Amino acid sequence: KIDQYVGIIAEKTGQDPTLVRNVLMGVILVVFVFGFGASIIANIVGVFYPAFQSFKALESEKSVDDKKWLTYWCIFSIFTIVDQFGHVILVWVPFYYILKLCFLMYLFLPYTDGASKIYVTYVLPIYEKYHKNIEAVGEKYADLTSVEFKMDKNEAKKAE
Q1: What is the pLDDT of residues 41-96, one digit of tens each?
Q2: Alpha-carbon distance 111 to 129, whole Å?
Q3: What is the three-class DSSP state of 92?
Q4: Burial of 73 (C-beta count, 10 Å sphere; 0-12/13-18/19+)
Q5: How far is CA 74 from the centre of its chain?
Q6: CA nearest 58: which of 43, 46, 70?
Q7: 107 with 118: CB under 8 angstroms?
Q8: Where do the TM regions start and end (predicted)?
Q9: Is the pTM of this model over 0.90?
């Protein structure tokens, strides 16, 4: 499909398709190196491809791919939180968005399976150690919200 567009551009400009392709690749590289839109490109790659693969996994009969993409989204969520809080500092790291793109691709590419490696090595041991505490806090706040919801529901009935 991309070759079709390269062919159209080459035909309209009278240039060799290889030259057109190389110029387009150079423009994309410059955009990444100097940060013009690099954040958007990194986020698109980190969200759209995995989302598409997740949709496919949901529709497949295998549960292996479900686990792979759930693991990706867990690690992606942790990374996004760190990225948001550290953004002020991280944007000053040279080629940050190239590094971010490479990291996100490391997480989801089948031959690296980085999300699973990070999950098993770092996240799972922390989860196993603290999950009871985390669940207790979650239950506490779930109880509070259900009490508040019941109060609001009762107040709504009184208002009728």
Answers
A1: 888 889 999 999 999 999 998 888 999 999 999 999 999 999 999 988 887 888 88
A2: 30
A3: coil
A4: middle
A5: 9
A6: 70
A7: yes
A8: 23-49, 95-112
A9: no
